[in-house]
Design brief:
2 domains, Rossmann fold, five-stranded parallel sheet, 239 residues
């Protein structure tokens, strides 16, 4: 009786191991593909840093294309010392994978974080709690190497292209808000009020045809929300 049982257990372990290795290989291939996807952005960052070395200890914008396409954010936030190192298409897992390249070289006193929209839109979208956990890990890494640095979480936007996932967007934002309120040196900043009309409907005039990314007036509205907060925070952390 023992031999058939052992053979059965052996087969179960074999197929389980095969499935696991196959899954691991797929994960590794996906990670490698996403790593290569962002290489041009980081080469461009390196060239910019070489041409004009940024001042360490400023305000660092990080995240996905919502911030990457804010190409004049430094001018709009002047005279605050802002540097934009967002890279388009990125997810919260990519912010973790590229953390060492994005944060430590600039030793920012303030980080403005926008990421999570792409996680929520993906066909294999993770639950809001999983996405939030990656932001929390990012935050904890910052606290470990730069304990005095302030982290501002800019809310995920309720964009018209993903109305069916607004509940998940709200859940993610709620988790981030609660965490920021309970964690020192953290602030939650809600961008969504700038994107709706008096009746709470999305202002489609602010969006590009994809109904996700923004025309310049949206960034002007973001500036009216973010800049006063950053000015206040900067007064507290600047030498």
């Amino acid at each position: 009786m023992k031999q058939p049982l052992l053979r059965t257990l052996g087969l179960i372990l074999f197929f389980s191991a095969t499935a696991f290795l196959g899954h691991a290989q797929t994960v590794d291939e996906t990670a490698a593909k996403r790593w290569a996807q962002y290489e041009p952005s980081f080469k461009a960052f390196a060239e910019q840093d070489l041409a004009q070395p940024p001042v360490r200890g400023g305000i660092l914008f990080v995240g996905s294309s919502i911030f990457r396409q804010w190409t004049n954010v430094a001018e709009m936030m002047a005279p605050l010392p802002v540097l934009n190192r967002a890279f388009g298409g990125s997810r919260t897992s990519d912010q973790l994978a590229r953390f060492e390249q994005v944060v430590p070289p600039y030793a920012p006193k303030v980080i403005v974080y926008y990421c999570g929209s792409n996680d929520l839109k993906a066909a294999e979208a993770d639950a809001p709690g999983v996405i939030f956990a990656r932001f929390r890990e990012f935050s904890q890494r910052v606290q470990k190497i730069l304990p005095a640095t302030q982290v501002l979480f800019a809310s995920a936007t309720r964009s018209p292209d993903r109305v069916g996932r607004w509940e998940q967007v709200d859940h993610y934002n709620a988790l981030a808000r609660a965490y920021c309120e309970a964690t020192s040196n953290h602030l939650f900043v809600d961008l969504n009020p700038a994107l709706v009309d008096a009746e709470g409907r999305p202002r489609l005039d602010l969006y590009k045809p994809d109904k996700l990314h923004f025309h310049p007036p949206a960034y002007e509205a973001f500036t009216t929300i973010l800049k006063p907060v950053l000015e206040r925070v900067w007064r507290d952390v600047a030498p």
